[in-house]
Amino acid sequence: MLKNIKSNKKGFTIVELLIVIVVIAILAAISIVAYNGIQNRGKQSSAQTLASQIAKKAEAWNAVESPYPNYCKLVTNTSNATGTGTGAGTAGCTAGATTGPGEAKLDSPGVVSAVAPTDEKSVQYARCTNNGFIVTYRTFPSGTATITGGTATGTCSAA
Fold it and tell me: Which of 15, 71, 94, 148 has CB 3.0 to 4.6 Å from 152, enough for a Cys bridge?
């Protein structure tokens, strides 16, 4: 005789498992987007802070020695520096013998660049012909913003 045996198997169906996987994937996608936004805001804040520090150093130079320094004077912290910046830091510049104002000495000249900034760790400094300057920094995810000082008009360059 065959007995009617009911099986008492417990478990999840494939549909239930798929629903859980989809919910986890949606939560992961939301987290990644939020994380990238937070990371970009942090990078932009870092770049803006660096640009502000460089602008303050240029303002300090102007207050002590007037006019604003050109690129090579700022990065070498010498009043009679020569050359034209060609990249980051002192590339393309020759330091002079006369030391510039101590208030304007850069802690890390390598963070200042004569060319457009590529990340949050560098800024571009350019002196303008009408006694002013522009400091350009990266905004994220893409773009740039500027901080100006003095009369930032006319031609602005690293020369």
Answer: 148
